[in-house]
Amino acid sequence: MSAIPPLLAVEGLTKSYGGIHAVRGVSFSLRAGEILALIGPNGAGKSTCFDMLNGQNKPDSGHVRLLGEEITGRKPREVWRLGVGRTFQITATFATMTVRENVQVALVSHGKQLFNLFGSAPKFDRGEAGRLLELVGMGGYADRPCGELAYGDLKRLELAVALANQPKLLLMDEPTAGMAPRERVDLMRLTASIAREKSIGVLFTEHDMDVVFEHADRIIVLNRGTLIAEGSPAEVRGNPQVQAVYLGEGLVYDARHREGAST
Amino acid sequence: MAFYVVQFLTGLASAASLFLVASGLSIIFGVTRIVNFAHGAFYMIGAYIAFTLTERLSGAFGFWGSIVLAALAVALIGVIVEMVLLRRIYHAPELFQLLATFGLTLMVEDLVVLIWGPDDLVGRRAPGFKGAIDFFGQNIPSYDLFLIVLGPVVLGILWLLFQRTRWGVLVRAATQDRDMVAALGVNQKWLFTSVFAVGVFLAALGGALQIPRDAVHHAMDLRIIVEVFVVVVIGGLGSIVGAFVAAVLVSELNAFGILIFPKISIILVFLVMAVVLIVRPWGLFGKPEAAARKTPGLTVNPWRPLTSNERLASLAALVIAAMLPLFAGNYALTVGSEIAIFVIFAVSLHFLMSVGGLASFGHAAYFGLGAYGIAFLAKMAGLPMIVCLLLGPLLGCLGAAVFGFFAVQLSGVYFAMLTLAFAQIVWSIAFQWVSVTGGDNGILGLWPSSWAASPSHFYWLALGVAALVMIALRAMVFSPFGYALRATRDSLLRSEAIGIDAKRIQWTAFVIAGTTAGIGGALFAYLKGSVFPDNLGISLSVDALVMVLLGGVETVSGAVIGAIVYKALNIWLVSQTDLSKLVLGGFIMLIVVVFPKGIVGMLEMLAQRRRKSSPPGSPLLAKPIESAE
Description:
By secondary structure, chain A is α/β, with parallel strands linked by helices. Chain A has helices at residues 46-53, 76-81, 99-110, 126-135, 151-162, 181-198, 209-215, 233-238, 240-245, 247-262; strands at 8-17, 20-30, 35-39, 61-66, 69-70, 84-87, 169-173, 201-205, 218-223, 226-231.
């Protein structure tokens, strides 16, 4: 074990609902600047696992540590203060506020000005809000009401909001679900470049194997609540157990690649 | 010992009616998601009709037949209400449904007096249950024993109905997911109507069965509805077993509370409710509601601060309003002061409701507390007016801090019901604690100091304070705090995920709104020269809600216009007719059905449409204060 604790260390995470063991003894770690994909079939426990990382859900046992500090069971807002941003599977944004205001709220919270009663919020960190929106390619939408946005744009807005507190770790639950293929590639490319540039660790769950194999540095595979494989994309792809679990998707993926190789 | 047993049995007997009404409310809510405020009104009509029928039809068969017949008749009225009114507003925000059924309640209150007169009516005793049974020297009315048995029997029948019939299965399915049930080809209209009829039948039956125990009177609707809200909050909305257990609990607390705090026994119930809400916010048997709450106005125009032109226009409107004493008489000035005070009251609720998404149904509590604060300071401590005006609203602030802490633990209809219950508790304290508050006689002789005594001076004072309050609250909407508050309204999940302590933000907003309402109440006490329990009553709370909705809940300052129009209309109506509740109730239903966006909301919409067709730069919506002249 190195002297510096990893950015995120998960140890023996366990959660059951009644008799169903949703997550059983899951352990893994994540370094700064690394992009880690958490994959698994439906019902594997990905979302449960994910929600326990930022306090949305409380584990029965196990530990979550951020840079060595225990964050297990802390409230989502406390985990955020420690530098963990997150996006949701179904986007959660402030629908009646404009795109810029959405980002400004996060900046207000980051600047601990939440109880500032008489300041001017429209002017609050306007420049920084603009920069974040430019970063995710939403600069032109700043004054649009958030409720009008297309789904793919909401996902990008969520990313901008999640970046507002200069996080060390980004948790993205199915960041490209519901997006067009072209948008998926763009969003993940963007995320990867931001993560590498700012040395942010990214953990994401994803069903689209193209996205996973193209962008993840490392992959962990969850099935029925337990971790069945861990390694580089090539290692995971070659893992017979993973292939068994992912038979359908794995075949499609392989077939496409062979096709591509033969032409 | 025997005394306590008898007290316990009396409690159980009271629980029967309460359970009937509460289970009806619960069933209706479960399927239609409507919190039927008019449930108390149906209970009352049930009692009145049963009274009339039992007077006409003689004999045991006549009596029991009348009870059932009355309940059926009211169920029929319920069906008509559902088909004519509620069907139009199932997809409106929850708030509008509560308000529409409140409008109905107001109308019923006047109609009942019109038909049966204002006096208490004492009904017949139940044939076969006229006597009392001796229990170790204590008397128990045998009718009480009948009710004690009836409660569990009705619970059993309802259970069978829901578990063993096809209709019951549909109702349970719709309670879980009504869209899915509709997708499966069930006729939803029929299902909703029948559920509403059953719920109303239970309420009316509860009312009819009260005749042998209690006099029938025209205020019994509000008393029962507050108790029923407390019951369903404790038991859990949508749970019939919860309604039963909570009805027994509340009735027993009332029965024994009277022994402990004879004057303010309702405090005990309140304490239990507070404890339940802290431990289980969804009630003892309720389930946490899936957050299906619609965000108010997804189509809302983005809010923005006033431009400099608009500021000038508002200032001009204020100046014009300030010139009123130059040409108006004393009566007009008094009316003007009252309107200014209600603007303060309305914008305070608007801040909580529009910006915070928290629809308080008991906002008058803080208005009234501000007024009583003045009364205590001026009459008991003998402080001068200026000191009173500064300190009096603090009582509203204190009340809002205590009640708000509990209220913000909940949201949506639970929040509305809880705030209503709190207000009713404050009202009963003011009403019952005669030695301090003077009870129904109020506290008289609160006159402004000489510097504010003349109508024009007082008008300027009220107008000035109203302007300050408007400016301050509007500034808060566009402050970092205002953004955070809007964020908690739009998405709790996202707010928590970006480090916002939503409950604390909402609590703070509640305290700000309560204190502001207290300022309005303080001025009101000086305007009227007296304070009465009515200053914190339900009807005043509803006035505030109507003003906000009339102005437009999706606007930044619509309540200003709403308050001016509504209050002017109200003062005029009361001078014209004795049936002001009837007209007002009809008016409320009209707003809900026809103008869901309110006056300012509608003007904004029109202005936006015009802007789209004409080049930009056209003046925006009418200025808030313009119509103050």
